[in-house]
């Protein structure tokens, strides 16, 4: 029997399926999530940690209860995972550096393109608004120096709306319509993807 314990950040439906498989292998899984999270409902033991899987202290607490730490969803504090990884007391899979790429969909596209994977042309809207290269994973080396970039100060709400509207219109001309606007971070099925 394997006596190692697995810690999982997040206890939703994927965490629940992971526990179902682990139970058949007699592997204890400790979950960090809300008390009534789906994964905790099928695994009654005292190794679970109640709290947010984005909370650094709660993640450290979970790490003390397990030998291997993984994630159910990538929306976690990667800085604390890197800290735990550096200490070498708990194996982190996937590594914190991998999770940083996974959790930022634009960085993920850049990473894939840099490694020869074909990806759809895309633009980082925030970078576009700030005047940096709007399309680093495109075959073209275009930039927004063509006066399409917003010149408003994005610090106020109305200026922000104007900047976004101007940027999205210019990006539409650049990529052509229709195009899809997606969240870079904190997105999942049905929200921002």
TrEMBL record:
It comes from the Eukaryota. InterPro entries: ATP_grasp_subdomain_1, PreATP-grasp_dom_sf, PurT/PurK_preATP-grasp. Residues 132-163 have a biased composition (Low complexity). Residues 4-102 form the PurT/PurK-like preATP-grasp domain. Pfam families: RS_preATP-grasp-like. Residues 129-163 are annotated as: Disordered. One of its GO terms (molecular function) is ATP binding. This is PreATP-grasp domain-containing protein.
């Amino acid at each position: 029997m394997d006596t190692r314990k697995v810690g999982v950040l997040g206890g939703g439906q994927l965490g629940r399926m992971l526990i179902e498989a682990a139970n058949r292998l007699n592997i204890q899984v400790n979950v960090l999530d809300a008390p009534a999270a789906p994964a905790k409902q099928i695994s009654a033991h005292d190794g679970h940690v109640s709290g947010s899987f984005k909370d650094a202290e709660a993640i450290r607490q979970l790490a003390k209860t397990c030998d291997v730490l993984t994630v159910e969803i990538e929306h976690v504090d990667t800085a604390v995972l890197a800290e735990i990884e550096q200490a070498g007391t708990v194996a982190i899979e996937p590594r914190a550096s991998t999770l940083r790429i996974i959790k930022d969909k634009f960085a993920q596209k850049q990473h894939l393109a840099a490694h020869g994977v074909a990806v759809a042309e895309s633009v980082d809207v925030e970078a576009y608004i700030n005047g940096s290269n709007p399309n680093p994973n495109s075959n073209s080396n275009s930039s927004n120096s063509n006066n399409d970039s917003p010149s408003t100060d994005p610090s106020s709400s109305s200026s922000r709306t104007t900047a976004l509207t101007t940027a999205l219109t210019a990006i539409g001309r650049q990529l052509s319509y229709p195009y899809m606007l997606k969240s870079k971070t904190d997105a999942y099925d049905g929200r921002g993807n």
